[in-house]
Input
Amino acid sequence: SLDVVGRKFSNLRVLNSYWVNQDATMKYYEIILIDPSHMKIRNDPRINWIVNPVHKHRECRGLTSAGRKGRGLRKSGHRANNIKGGSTRAAWLNRNMQRLKRYR
Output
């Protein structure tokens, strides 16, 4: 999976992944890895956003396309009411928690 590859090649950044093939027992994916220290990557304005330290281990935080799909973030509008805030539990907490000012 993505996080296994991200930990194995910790000097590279996971950009995305896509399905390639499957048989009776396994599914096979290709994972696109990017070397943030390569000068071609650093100088290319379309992809050099991934060089910033905030994008380290995106795959472990569910920020790739597959991670967002697993978190249910491909929906929008009224269908996404239960996942605003990251999860069903977070959405429920936001609706049901009473917030009060410290000095009232």
Remarks:
- Residues 37 and 86 are 31 Å apart (CA to CA).
